[in-house]
């Protein structure tokens, strides 16, 4: 049985970026030992791999994005709390260590996060070359043309509504 591998079916770099980011947040507070961080990273990596297994579509990178999204909004993401429990971190400790508002999007070819509900979105990992080449180039030209054409009317609409 040869595993036919498409462009890249694995989630290794994306999950590594997400795990590294969360571990890094824990590391900055200095309450967690390197050894604990290693265990946490391993546990989180396994949990995410398991969680995403049937929800990973490199050919449609945004399909299932909500399912893969890791969120802390005064409610700890269960995947993170499970990994943290492996190193004896309690929920209150986690809330102290991690931002109270964090959204982490783990999508094929791109991992990004936002801290705070209205924070700006930062990209952690981007595989530029890996995006499906199909109509990608055409799409951007078309978008640029449309953008160029539609901006005057857009401004017009804005002035009317204000």
Automatic annotation (TrEMBL):
It comes from the Eukaryota. SMART domains: btg1. GO terms for cellular component: cytoplasm; nucleus. Residues 52-72, 98-117 form the Anti-proliferative protein domain. GO terms for biological process: negative regulation of cell population proliferation. InterPro entries: Anti_prolifrtn (IPR002087), BTG (IPR033332), BTG-like_sf (IPR036054). Pfam families: BTG. PANTHER family: B-CELL TRANSLOCATION GENE, PROTEIN BTG2. Belongs to the BTG family. This is BTG2 protein. The gene is Btg2.
